[in-house]
Design goal:
Elements: H1 3-13, H2 18-23, H3 25-30, H4 37-45, E1 47-52, H5 61-85, H6 89-98, H7 103-112, E2 116-117, E3 123-124, H8 144-153, H9 158-161, E4 166-170, E5 176-180, H10 181-184, H11 186-202, H12 206-221, H13 225-231, E6 239-245, E7 260-267, H14 269-280, H15 282-287, E8 306-316, E9 326-329, H16 333-339, E10 342-346, H17 347-365, H18 368-371, H19 376-389, E11 396-401, E12 404-409, H20 410-414, H21 418-440, H22 447-465, H23 468-483, E13 487-490, E14 495-498, H24 503-520, H25 523-533, H26 538-545, E15 553-558, H27 560-563
This protein binds zinc ion (ZN).
Zinc ion is lined by residues 2, 4-5, 386, 390, 423, 426.
Protein backbone atom coordinates (compact mmCIF):
# COMPACT_ATOMS: atom_id res chain seq x y z
CA UNK A 1 0.00 0.00 0.00
CA UNK A 2 1.07 3.48 -0.59
CA UNK A 3 1.11 4.80 2.94
CA UNK A 4 0.36 8.27 1.75
CA UNK A 5 -2.77 7.54 -0.23
CA UNK A 6 -4.64 6.76 3.01
CA UNK A 7 -2.32 9.32 4.59
CA UNK A 8 -3.08 11.47 1.53
CA UNK A 9 -6.69 10.74 2.38
CA UNK A 10 -5.43 11.58 5.89
CA UNK A 11 -3.15 14.35 4.76
CA UNK A 12 -5.91 15.91 2.86
CA UNK A 13 -7.69 15.87 6.17
CA UNK A 14 -4.70 17.02 8.12
CA UNK A 15 -3.56 19.71 6.01
CA UNK A 16 -1.28 22.22 7.61
CA UNK A 17 -1.20 25.25 5.43
CA UNK A 18 2.27 26.65 4.99
CA UNK A 19 0.81 29.70 3.31
CA UNK A 20 -1.04 30.69 6.53
CA UNK A 21 2.21 30.36 8.53
CA UNK A 22 3.90 32.79 6.18
CA UNK A 23 1.00 35.17 6.54
CA UNK A 24 1.56 35.06 10.32
CA UNK A 25 -2.21 34.68 10.83
CA UNK A 26 -1.61 31.78 13.28
CA UNK A 27 -0.22 34.12 15.95
CA UNK A 28 -3.42 36.14 16.27
CA UNK A 29 -5.57 33.01 16.71
CA UNK A 30 -3.64 31.66 19.68
CA UNK A 31 -5.19 34.45 21.74
CA UNK A 32 -8.63 33.05 20.75
CA UNK A 33 -9.76 36.52 19.64
CA UNK A 34 -13.02 36.39 17.60
CA UNK A 35 -12.27 36.42 13.87
CA UNK A 36 -13.36 39.63 12.17
CA UNK A 37 -15.94 39.53 9.37
CA UNK A 38 -13.39 40.68 6.79
CA UNK A 39 -10.87 38.03 7.88
CA UNK A 40 -13.62 35.39 7.78
CA UNK A 41 -14.66 36.41 4.28
CA UNK A 42 -11.05 36.06 3.19
CA UNK A 43 -10.91 32.56 4.61
CA UNK A 44 -14.20 31.61 3.01
CA UNK A 45 -12.84 32.83 -0.35
CA UNK A 46 -10.08 30.22 -0.01
CA UNK A 47 -12.77 27.61 -0.66
CA UNK A 48 -14.11 28.31 -4.12
CA UNK A 49 -17.71 27.21 -4.88
CA UNK A 50 -17.45 24.37 -7.40
CA UNK A 51 -20.13 22.39 -9.20
CA UNK A 52 -19.37 18.66 -9.23
CA UNK A 53 -21.30 16.93 -11.96
CA UNK A 54 -21.46 13.39 -13.31
CA UNK A 55 -22.82 11.71 -16.45
CA UNK A 56 -26.25 10.59 -15.17
CA UNK A 57 -27.18 9.41 -18.66
CA UNK A 58 -24.87 6.43 -18.04
CA UNK A 59 -27.00 5.33 -15.07
CA UNK A 60 -29.83 2.85 -15.57
CA UNK A 61 -33.27 3.57 -14.12
CA UNK A 62 -32.53 1.13 -11.29
CA UNK A 63 -29.16 2.75 -10.58
CA UNK A 64 -30.83 6.16 -10.32
CA UNK A 65 -33.16 4.79 -7.64
CA UNK A 66 -30.13 3.37 -5.82
CA UNK A 67 -28.41 6.77 -5.98
CA UNK A 68 -31.49 8.54 -4.62
CA UNK A 69 -31.58 6.36 -1.49
CA UNK A 70 -27.82 6.59 -1.06
CA UNK A 71 -27.81 10.39 -1.19
CA UNK A 72 -30.40 10.34 1.62
CA UNK A 73 -28.31 7.87 3.62
CA UNK A 74 -25.23 10.02 3.03
CA UNK A 75 -27.01 13.17 4.23
CA UNK A 76 -27.53 11.30 7.53
CA UNK A 77 -23.73 10.79 7.64
CA UNK A 78 -23.46 14.61 7.52
CA UNK A 79 -25.62 14.86 10.63
CA UNK A 80 -23.70 12.08 12.40
CA UNK A 81 -20.27 13.58 11.72
CA UNK A 82 -21.47 17.01 12.82
CA UNK A 83 -22.40 15.52 16.23
CA UNK A 84 -19.20 13.45 16.38
CA UNK A 85 -17.15 16.56 15.72
CA UNK A 86 -18.85 18.39 18.57
CA UNK A 87 -22.17 17.63 20.34
CA UNK A 88 -23.08 21.34 20.33
CA UNK A 89 -22.74 21.66 16.55
CA UNK A 90 -26.44 21.24 15.61
CA UNK A 91 -27.44 23.94 18.14
CA UNK A 92 -24.59 26.24 17.04
CA UNK A 93 -25.65 25.92 13.40
CA UNK A 94 -29.26 26.77 14.32
CA UNK A 95 -28.06 29.95 16.06
CA UNK A 96 -25.99 31.00 13.05
CA UNK A 97 -28.82 30.23 10.63
CA UNK A 98 -31.20 32.36 12.70
CA UNK A 99 -29.09 35.55 12.39
CA UNK A 100 -28.85 37.11 8.88
CA UNK A 101 -25.79 39.11 10.03
CA UNK A 102 -23.88 35.85 10.46
CA UNK A 103 -24.16 34.59 6.86
CA UNK A 104 -20.37 34.30 6.37
CA UNK A 105 -20.03 32.47 9.68
CA UNK A 106 -22.78 30.02 8.64
CA UNK A 107 -21.12 29.39 5.25
CA UNK A 108 -17.75 28.78 6.91
CA UNK A 109 -19.43 26.55 9.51
CA UNK A 110 -20.69 24.36 6.64
CA UNK A 111 -17.18 24.18 5.13
CA UNK A 112 -15.56 23.30 8.46
CA UNK A 113 -18.38 21.22 10.00
CA UNK A 114 -18.30 23.40 13.11
CA UNK A 115 -17.10 26.77 14.39
CA UNK A 116 -13.46 25.58 14.46
CA UNK A 117 -11.07 26.31 11.60
CA UNK A 118 -9.42 23.05 10.47
CA UNK A 119 -6.75 25.06 8.63
CA UNK A 120 -5.85 27.00 11.81
CA UNK A 121 -5.33 24.16 14.29
CA UNK A 122 -9.07 24.12 15.11
CA UNK A 123 -9.05 27.62 16.54
CA UNK A 124 -12.66 28.86 16.95
CA UNK A 125 -13.72 31.46 14.34
CA UNK A 126 -16.96 32.15 16.21
CA UNK A 127 -18.18 31.75 19.79
CA UNK A 128 -14.72 31.63 21.35
CA UNK A 129 -15.05 28.15 22.87
CA UNK A 130 -12.09 25.81 22.30
CA UNK A 131 -12.72 22.43 20.68
CA UNK A 132 -11.78 19.42 22.84
CA UNK A 133 -8.99 17.30 21.25
CA UNK A 134 -11.24 14.27 21.63
CA UNK A 135 -13.99 16.02 19.64
CA UNK A 136 -17.38 14.59 20.66
CA UNK A 137 -16.09 11.07 21.25
CA UNK A 138 -15.16 11.58 24.92
CA UNK A 139 -16.53 13.77 27.75
CA UNK A 140 -15.23 17.29 27.10
CA UNK A 141 -13.66 17.43 30.58
CA UNK A 142 -12.01 14.00 30.37
CA UNK A 143 -8.21 13.98 30.20
CA UNK A 144 -5.93 11.37 28.60
CA UNK A 145 -4.61 10.61 32.08
CA UNK A 146 -8.09 9.93 33.44
CA UNK A 147 -8.86 7.59 30.52
CA UNK A 148 -5.61 5.64 30.96
CA UNK A 149 -5.96 5.51 34.74
CA UNK A 150 -9.49 4.16 34.37
CA UNK A 151 -8.29 1.40 32.03
CA UNK A 152 -5.44 0.57 34.36
CA UNK A 153 -8.07 -0.16 37.01
CA UNK A 154 -10.39 -1.89 34.49
CA UNK A 155 -8.15 -3.70 31.97
CA UNK A 156 -11.04 -5.88 30.77
CA UNK A 157 -12.69 -2.77 29.37
CA UNK A 158 -9.76 -1.74 27.17
CA UNK A 159 -11.06 -3.50 24.04
CA UNK A 160 -14.42 -1.68 24.14
CA UNK A 161 -12.86 1.67 25.13
CA UNK A 162 -10.27 1.62 22.33
CA UNK A 163 -12.71 0.28 19.77
CA UNK A 164 -13.22 2.28 16.55
CA UNK A 165 -16.99 2.27 17.04
CA UNK A 166 -17.73 3.25 20.66
CA UNK A 167 -18.34 6.63 22.29
CA UNK A 168 -16.99 7.27 25.81
CA UNK A 169 -19.28 8.98 28.32
CA UNK A 170 -19.59 9.29 32.09
CA UNK A 171 -21.76 6.65 33.75
CA UNK A 172 -24.07 7.19 36.74
CA UNK A 173 -21.14 6.73 39.13
CA UNK A 174 -19.14 9.36 37.20
CA UNK A 175 -16.91 6.48 36.03
CA UNK A 176 -16.43 6.07 32.28
CA UNK A 177 -18.51 3.85 29.99
CA UNK A 178 -18.11 2.83 26.32
CA UNK A 179 -21.33 3.03 24.31
CA UNK A 180 -21.53 1.32 20.88
CA UNK A 181 -22.28 3.67 17.94
CA UNK A 182 -25.31 1.47 17.17
CA UNK A 183 -26.76 2.52 20.53
CA UNK A 184 -25.45 6.07 20.87
CA UNK A 185 -26.53 7.13 17.37
CA UNK A 186 -29.40 4.62 17.13
CA UNK A 187 -32.06 6.98 15.71
CA UNK A 188 -29.99 8.28 12.84
CA UNK A 189 -28.39 4.89 12.10
CA UNK A 190 -31.80 3.21 11.89
CA UNK A 191 -32.85 5.78 9.29
CA UNK A 192 -29.61 5.30 7.34
CA UNK A 193 -29.99 1.51 7.46
CA UNK A 194 -33.50 1.80 6.04
CA UNK A 195 -32.19 3.87 3.11
CA UNK A 196 -29.39 1.35 2.44
CA UNK A 197 -31.89 -1.48 2.42
CA UNK A 198 -34.15 0.39 0.02
CA UNK A 199 -31.11 1.01 -2.21
CA UNK A 200 -30.15 -2.67 -2.06
CA UNK A 201 -33.67 -3.61 -3.09
CA UNK A 202 -33.59 -1.23 -6.05
CA UNK A 203 -30.15 -2.39 -7.21
CA UNK A 204 -29.64 -4.70 -10.20
CA UNK A 205 -26.02 -5.34 -9.10
CA UNK A 206 -25.98 -8.32 -6.70
CA UNK A 207 -22.55 -7.49 -5.27
CA UNK A 208 -23.59 -3.91 -4.50
CA UNK A 209 -26.87 -5.11 -2.97
CA UNK A 210 -24.96 -7.53 -0.73
CA UNK A 211 -22.63 -4.76 0.47
CA UNK A 212 -25.53 -2.37 1.15
CA UNK A 213 -27.46 -5.03 3.06
CA UNK A 214 -24.48 -5.99 5.21
CA UNK A 215 -23.56 -2.34 5.82
CA UNK A 216 -27.16 -1.66 6.94
CA UNK A 217 -26.83 -4.60 9.34
CA UNK A 218 -23.54 -3.15 10.64
CA UNK A 219 -25.25 0.17 11.50
CA UNK A 220 -27.54 -1.79 13.85
CA UNK A 221 -25.10 -4.47 15.11
CA UNK A 222 -21.97 -2.32 15.36
CA UNK A 223 -19.97 -5.06 13.61
CA UNK A 224 -18.44 -3.56 10.45
CA UNK A 225 -16.05 -6.38 9.35
CA UNK A 226 -18.46 -8.49 7.22
CA UNK A 227 -19.53 -5.46 5.18
CA UNK A 228 -15.90 -4.35 4.75
CA UNK A 229 -15.27 -7.82 3.28
CA UNK A 230 -18.27 -7.38 0.96
CA UNK A 231 -16.97 -3.96 -0.10
CA UNK A 232 -13.80 -5.61 -1.39
CA UNK A 233 -15.99 -7.83 -3.61
CA UNK A 234 -17.77 -4.96 -5.39
CA UNK A 235 -15.66 -5.55 -8.54
CA UNK A 236 -16.01 -2.96 -11.32
CA UNK A 237 -19.72 -2.22 -11.27
CA UNK A 238 -21.02 1.19 -12.40
CA UNK A 239 -21.51 2.51 -8.84
CA UNK A 240 -18.73 2.74 -6.23
CA UNK A 241 -20.06 3.37 -2.72
CA UNK A 242 -18.40 3.83 0.64
CA UNK A 243 -20.56 4.68 3.64
CA UNK A 244 -19.95 4.38 7.38
CA UNK A 245 -17.31 5.16 10.03
CA UNK A 246 -13.71 4.98 8.75
CA UNK A 247 -11.00 7.51 9.57
CA UNK A 248 -9.75 8.46 13.02
CA UNK A 249 -8.29 11.93 12.38
CA UNK A 250 -11.09 13.77 14.12
CA UNK A 251 -10.04 12.04 17.36
CA UNK A 252 -6.93 14.09 18.05
CA UNK A 253 -6.83 12.74 21.63
CA UNK A 254 -6.14 9.06 20.95
CA UNK A 255 -6.87 8.39 17.25
CA UNK A 256 -9.18 5.51 18.32
CA UNK A 257 -12.62 6.64 17.09
CA UNK A 258 -13.84 6.37 13.50
CA UNK A 259 -15.76 9.20 11.85
CA UNK A 260 -18.88 8.75 9.70
CA UNK A 261 -18.40 9.56 6.04
CA UNK A 262 -19.79 8.68 2.60
CA UNK A 263 -18.53 8.58 -0.99
CA UNK A 264 -21.10 7.98 -3.71
CA UNK A 265 -19.30 7.61 -7.03
CA UNK A 266 -19.64 6.20 -10.54
CA UNK A 267 -16.94 4.49 -12.58
CA UNK A 268 -15.16 6.81 -15.06
CA UNK A 269 -14.77 4.75 -18.22
CA UNK A 270 -12.12 6.85 -20.03
CA UNK A 271 -9.57 6.86 -17.24
CA UNK A 272 -10.40 3.35 -16.03
CA UNK A 273 -9.46 2.17 -19.53
CA UNK A 274 -6.33 4.34 -19.49
CA UNK A 275 -5.35 2.74 -16.20
CA UNK A 276 -5.97 -0.76 -17.53
CA UNK A 277 -3.65 0.04 -20.46
CA UNK A 278 -0.97 1.29 -18.05
CA UNK A 279 -1.18 -1.78 -15.78
CA UNK A 280 -0.99 -4.05 -18.86
CA UNK A 281 2.62 -2.85 -19.30
CA UNK A 282 3.64 -3.60 -15.71
CA UNK A 283 6.37 -6.12 -16.65
CA UNK A 284 7.83 -3.80 -19.31
CA UNK A 285 7.83 -0.95 -16.80
CA UNK A 286 9.63 -3.05 -14.16
CA UNK A 287 12.13 -4.11 -16.81
CA UNK A 288 12.74 -0.48 -17.77
CA UNK A 289 13.51 0.73 -14.23
CA UNK A 290 16.84 2.65 -14.39
CA UNK A 291 18.54 0.30 -11.90
CA UNK A 292 20.70 -2.86 -12.28
CA UNK A 293 18.59 -5.93 -13.21
CA UNK A 294 19.27 -7.71 -9.92
CA UNK A 295 17.26 -5.07 -8.08
CA UNK A 296 14.19 -5.38 -10.32
CA UNK A 297 11.31 -7.34 -8.88
CA UNK A 298 8.95 -9.18 -11.20
CA UNK A 299 7.34 -11.38 -8.56
CA UNK A 300 5.19 -9.29 -6.38
CA UNK A 301 2.59 -9.52 -3.64
CA UNK A 302 -1.14 -8.96 -3.87
CA UNK A 303 -2.19 -6.65 -6.73
CA UNK A 304 -3.93 -3.49 -5.50
CA UNK A 305 -7.09 -2.77 -7.48
CA UNK A 306 -7.16 0.92 -8.53
CA UNK A 307 -10.53 2.37 -9.52
CA UNK A 308 -11.11 5.70 -11.27
CA UNK A 309 -14.47 7.28 -10.52
CA UNK A 310 -16.45 10.52 -10.67
CA UNK A 311 -17.87 11.74 -7.40
CA UNK A 312 -21.67 12.05 -7.32
CA UNK A 313 -21.99 13.03 -3.65
CA UNK A 314 -19.94 12.94 -0.45
CA UNK A 315 -20.78 13.49 3.18
CA UNK A 316 -19.40 13.70 6.68
CA UNK A 317 -15.72 13.50 7.56
CA UNK A 318 -14.38 13.60 4.01
CA UNK A 319 -16.40 16.71 3.11
CA UNK A 320 -15.08 18.78 6.03
CA UNK A 321 -12.37 21.26 4.99
CA UNK A 322 -10.14 20.11 2.12
CA UNK A 323 -11.75 17.82 -0.48
CA UNK A 324 -10.29 14.35 -0.99
CA UNK A 325 -8.63 13.38 -4.28
CA UNK A 326 -8.22 9.68 -3.58
CA UNK A 327 -8.84 7.17 -0.82
CA UNK A 328 -7.54 3.79 0.12
CA UNK A 329 -9.76 1.52 2.20
CA UNK A 330 -10.76 -0.42 4.25
CA UNK A 331 -8.68 0.26 7.38
CA UNK A 332 -9.54 -2.96 9.19
CA UNK A 333 -6.22 -4.88 9.17
CA UNK A 334 -8.00 -8.26 9.26
CA UNK A 335 -9.87 -7.40 6.05
CA UNK A 336 -6.71 -5.95 4.49
CA UNK A 337 -4.86 -9.18 5.20
CA UNK A 338 -7.65 -11.39 3.89
CA UNK A 339 -8.95 -9.38 0.93
CA UNK A 340 -6.40 -6.56 0.41
CA UNK A 341 -7.56 -2.98 -0.10
CA UNK A 342 -8.72 -0.70 -2.89
CA UNK A 343 -7.40 2.61 -4.14
CA UNK A 344 -10.08 4.90 -5.53
CA UNK A 345 -9.13 8.02 -7.53
CA UNK A 346 -11.72 10.80 -7.84
CA UNK A 347 -11.39 12.14 -11.38
CA UNK A 348 -13.95 14.98 -11.40
CA UNK A 349 -12.58 16.36 -8.11
CA UNK A 350 -9.05 16.27 -9.55
CA UNK A 351 -10.33 18.05 -12.66
CA UNK A 352 -12.05 20.77 -10.61
CA UNK A 353 -8.87 21.37 -8.58
CA UNK A 354 -6.90 21.41 -11.82
CA UNK A 355 -9.12 24.13 -13.33
CA UNK A 356 -9.71 26.24 -10.23
CA UNK A 357 -6.31 26.00 -8.53
CA UNK A 358 -3.59 24.43 -10.62
CA UNK A 359 -4.03 26.43 -13.81
CA UNK A 360 -4.21 29.81 -11.98
CA UNK A 361 -1.03 28.80 -10.11
CA UNK A 362 0.71 27.78 -13.34
CA UNK A 363 -0.24 31.11 -14.94
CA UNK A 364 1.43 32.95 -12.03
CA UNK A 365 4.60 30.87 -11.77
CA UNK A 366 5.32 29.34 -15.21
CA UNK A 367 6.55 30.94 -18.45
CA UNK A 368 3.57 31.73 -20.68
CA UNK A 369 4.69 29.61 -23.65
CA UNK A 370 4.62 26.46 -21.51
CA UNK A 371 1.14 26.98 -19.99
CA UNK A 372 -0.53 25.32 -22.98
CA UNK A 373 1.41 22.14 -22.12
CA UNK A 374 -0.31 22.02 -18.72
CA UNK A 375 -3.32 19.78 -19.42
CA UNK A 376 -5.72 17.86 -17.19
CA UNK A 377 -5.11 14.72 -19.26
CA UNK A 378 -1.39 14.90 -18.44
CA UNK A 379 -1.98 15.93 -14.80
CA UNK A 380 -4.30 13.00 -14.15
CA UNK A 381 -2.09 10.59 -16.07
CA UNK A 382 0.73 11.64 -13.74
CA UNK A 383 -1.54 10.63 -10.85
CA UNK A 384 -2.26 7.23 -12.46
CA UNK A 385 1.45 6.69 -13.18
CA UNK A 386 2.30 7.75 -9.60
CA UNK A 387 -0.05 5.12 -8.17
CA UNK A 388 1.22 2.46 -10.59
CA UNK A 389 4.84 3.27 -9.75
CA UNK A 390 4.12 2.55 -6.07
CA UNK A 391 3.81 -1.07 -7.18
CA UNK A 392 7.22 -1.08 -8.92
CA UNK A 393 10.81 -1.37 -7.67
CA UNK A 394 12.39 -2.84 -4.55
CA UNK A 395 10.16 -4.11 -1.72
CA UNK A 396 11.79 -7.04 0.06
CA UNK A 397 15.59 -6.45 0.05
CA UNK A 398 18.81 -8.05 1.27
CA UNK A 399 21.36 -6.00 3.11
CA UNK A 400 24.40 -6.43 5.34
CA UNK A 401 23.93 -5.93 9.07
CA UNK A 402 27.01 -6.32 11.24
CA UNK A 403 28.64 -8.28 8.42
CA UNK A 404 25.70 -10.68 8.12
CA UNK A 405 23.27 -10.80 5.16
CA UNK A 406 19.69 -10.11 6.34
CA UNK A 407 16.36 -10.01 4.46
CA UNK A 408 14.14 -7.05 5.29
CA UNK A 409 11.77 -4.57 3.64
CA UNK A 410 12.52 -1.10 2.26
CA UNK A 411 9.99 0.30 4.72
CA UNK A 412 11.81 -1.18 7.71
CA UNK A 413 15.29 -0.24 6.44
CA UNK A 414 14.50 3.41 5.72
CA UNK A 415 12.25 3.84 8.80
CA UNK A 416 10.80 7.34 9.22
CA UNK A 417 12.40 8.41 5.92
CA UNK A 418 10.55 5.75 3.91
CA UNK A 419 7.33 7.62 3.06
CA UNK A 420 9.19 10.70 1.79
CA UNK A 421 11.45 8.63 -0.49
CA UNK A 422 8.61 6.35 -1.61
CA UNK A 423 6.43 9.35 -2.56
CA UNK A 424 9.28 10.97 -4.51
CA UNK A 425 10.06 7.62 -6.17
CA UNK A 426 6.43 7.18 -7.25
CA UNK A 427 6.24 10.70 -8.71
CA UNK A 428 9.57 10.59 -10.54
CA UNK A 429 9.58 6.95 -11.66
CA UNK A 430 6.01 7.42 -12.91
CA UNK A 431 7.16 10.45 -14.88
CA UNK A 432 10.20 8.58 -16.24
CA UNK A 433 8.11 5.62 -17.41
CA UNK A 434 5.53 7.80 -19.18
CA UNK A 435 8.03 8.11 -22.01
CA UNK A 436 8.22 4.32 -22.33
CA UNK A 437 4.44 3.99 -22.43
CA UNK A 438 4.21 6.65 -25.15
CA UNK A 439 6.68 4.54 -27.16
CA UNK A 440 4.73 1.31 -26.46
CA UNK A 441 1.40 2.97 -27.39
CA UNK A 442 0.07 2.80 -23.80
CA UNK A 443 -0.22 6.60 -23.64
CA UNK A 444 -1.03 9.19 -26.35
CA UNK A 445 2.00 10.88 -27.99
CA UNK A 446 0.68 14.35 -27.09
CA UNK A 447 1.47 13.61 -23.45
CA UNK A 448 5.20 13.31 -24.06
CA UNK A 449 5.99 16.95 -23.16
CA UNK A 450 2.75 17.68 -21.30
CA UNK A 451 3.51 15.30 -18.41
CA UNK A 452 6.62 17.32 -17.46
CA UNK A 453 4.95 20.76 -17.69
CA UNK A 454 1.92 19.47 -15.78
CA UNK A 455 4.19 17.93 -13.13
CA UNK A 456 5.83 21.32 -12.60
CA UNK A 457 2.44 23.07 -12.21
CA UNK A 458 1.18 20.27 -9.93
CA UNK A 459 4.29 20.63 -7.86
CA UNK A 460 3.50 24.23 -6.85
CA UNK A 461 0.00 23.19 -5.78
CA UNK A 462 1.16 20.41 -3.47
CA UNK A 463 4.10 22.34 -1.94
CA UNK A 464 1.71 25.15 -1.08
CA UNK A 465 0.05 22.81 1.45
CA UNK A 466 3.21 21.42 2.95
CA UNK A 467 2.24 18.16 4.64
CA UNK A 468 5.03 15.83 5.70
CA UNK A 469 5.85 13.11 3.16
CA UNK A 470 4.35 14.73 0.07
CA UNK A 471 5.65 18.20 0.71
CA UNK A 472 9.21 17.03 1.37
CA UNK A 473 9.15 14.54 -1.51
CA UNK A 474 8.21 17.38 -3.84
CA UNK A 475 10.92 19.68 -2.52
CA UNK A 476 13.61 17.03 -3.00
CA UNK A 477 12.57 16.33 -6.58
CA UNK A 478 12.21 19.99 -7.47
CA UNK A 479 15.61 21.04 -6.10
CA UNK A 480 17.34 18.05 -7.72
CA UNK A 481 15.75 18.78 -11.13
CA UNK A 482 16.71 22.47 -10.80
CA UNK A 483 20.29 21.45 -9.95
CA UNK A 484 20.39 19.21 -13.06
CA UNK A 485 18.99 22.02 -15.23
CA UNK A 486 15.71 20.22 -16.05
CA UNK A 487 13.73 23.00 -14.37
CA UNK A 488 14.93 26.58 -14.83
CA UNK A 489 14.10 29.76 -12.89
CA UNK A 490 14.12 32.99 -14.88
CA UNK A 491 15.04 35.77 -12.40
CA UNK A 492 13.78 38.44 -14.85
CA UNK A 493 10.26 37.04 -15.33
CA UNK A 494 10.42 35.45 -11.87
CA UNK A 495 8.95 32.37 -13.52
CA UNK A 496 9.87 28.72 -13.85
CA UNK A 497 10.05 26.54 -17.00
CA UNK A 498 11.00 23.03 -18.14
CA UNK A 499 14.18 22.64 -20.21
CA UNK A 500 13.12 19.81 -22.51
CA UNK A 501 16.70 19.15 -23.59
CA UNK A 502 17.65 18.22 -20.03
CA UNK A 503 14.52 17.17 -18.13
CA UNK A 504 14.38 13.53 -19.29
CA UNK A 505 17.96 12.73 -18.24
CA UNK A 506 17.47 14.61 -14.96
CA UNK A 507 14.30 12.64 -14.20
CA UNK A 508 15.96 9.36 -15.14
CA UNK A 509 18.94 10.05 -12.90
CA UNK A 510 16.73 11.07 -9.96
CA UNK A 511 14.60 7.94 -10.41
CA UNK A 512 17.81 5.89 -10.34
CA UNK A 513 19.03 7.53 -7.12
CA UNK A 514 15.72 7.14 -5.30
CA UNK A 515 15.29 3.50 -6.36
CA UNK A 516 18.88 2.69 -5.31
CA UNK A 517 18.35 4.18 -1.82
CA UNK A 518 15.44 1.74 -1.54
CA UNK A 519 17.27 -1.21 -3.13
CA UNK A 520 20.21 -0.84 -0.74
CA UNK A 521 18.08 0.10 2.30
CA UNK A 522 20.57 2.94 2.62
CA UNK A 523 19.30 4.89 5.66
CA UNK A 524 22.33 7.19 6.06
CA UNK A 525 22.55 7.95 2.33
CA UNK A 526 18.86 8.78 2.27
CA UNK A 527 19.19 11.02 5.29
CA UNK A 528 22.03 13.00 3.70
CA UNK A 529 20.08 13.23 0.44
CA UNK A 530 16.97 14.62 2.16
CA UNK A 531 19.11 17.07 4.16
CA UNK A 532 20.69 18.31 0.91
CA UNK A 533 17.57 18.64 -1.26
CA UNK A 534 14.73 18.90 1.25
CA UNK A 535 14.82 22.63 1.88
CA UNK A 536 12.58 25.35 0.44
CA UNK A 537 14.62 27.62 -1.86
CA UNK A 538 14.19 31.42 -1.77
CA UNK A 539 12.81 31.36 -5.35
CA UNK A 540 10.22 28.88 -4.20
CA UNK A 541 9.29 30.92 -1.11
CA UNK A 542 8.87 34.01 -3.27
CA UNK A 543 6.82 31.98 -5.72
CA UNK A 544 4.41 30.74 -3.06
CA UNK A 545 3.99 34.26 -1.74
CA UNK A 546 2.75 35.26 -5.19
CA UNK A 547 -0.13 32.77 -5.00
CA UNK A 548 -2.25 35.06 -2.86
CA UNK A 549 -5.89 35.11 -3.91
CA UNK A 550 -5.77 31.70 -5.59
CA UNK A 551 -8.22 29.40 -3.80
CA UNK A 552 -6.81 26.75 -1.49
CA UNK A 553 -9.58 24.27 -2.17
CA UNK A 554 -13.14 23.62 -3.31
CA UNK A 555 -16.60 24.14 -1.84
CA UNK A 556 -18.49 21.35 -3.61
CA UNK A 557 -21.99 21.76 -5.04
CA UNK A 558 -23.38 18.42 -6.14
CA UNK A 559 -25.73 18.45 -9.17
CA UNK A 560 -27.28 15.14 -8.05
CA UNK A 561 -29.33 16.92 -5.37
CA UNK A 562 -31.23 18.78 -8.09
CA UNK A 563 -31.15 16.00 -10.70
CA UNK A 564 -32.65 13.36 -8.43
CA UNK A 565 -35.76 15.46 -7.88
CA UNK A 566 -36.88 14.44 -11.36
CA UNK A 567 -35.97 10.72 -10.98
ZN1 LIG B 1 1.66 8.30 -3.34
Amino acid sequence: MNPNTRTMFRTLTLIVSLAALWSGAALALKTNKPVSDSELKKRLANFTPTTLDFDHKKLTKAQRQVVKHLVKAAQIMDQLFLIQSHPKNPALRKKLAADPKLKAQLAYFDVMFGVWDRREHNQPFWGGEMKPKGAGYYPADMTKEEFNAFLKKNPDKARAFKNYFTVIRRGKDKGLVAIPYSTFYADLLKKAAAELRAAAKASDDKRLARYLESRAAAFLSNNYRPSDMDWMELGDGRLEVVIGPYEVYEDELFGYKAAFTAFLCMRNDKYSERLQKITAFKAQMEDALPIPAEYRRFKRGAKVPITVVDEIFTAGDTKAGIQTLAFNLPNDEVVRKKKGYKLVLLKNVAEAKFKKILIPIAKRLMDADQIKLVTFDAFFTNTLMHESAHGLGPGVIEMLEEGKKVTTTVNKALKELYSTIEEAKADITGLHLSELLVKLGGLPKALSKQVFASYLAGFFRSVRFGGEAHGRANLISFNYLVEKGGIIYNPKSKKFRIDFSKIRDAVRSLSHDLLMFEARGDYEGTKAFIAKYGKMSQNMRDGIKRLKGIPVDLRPRYTVVQKMKSW
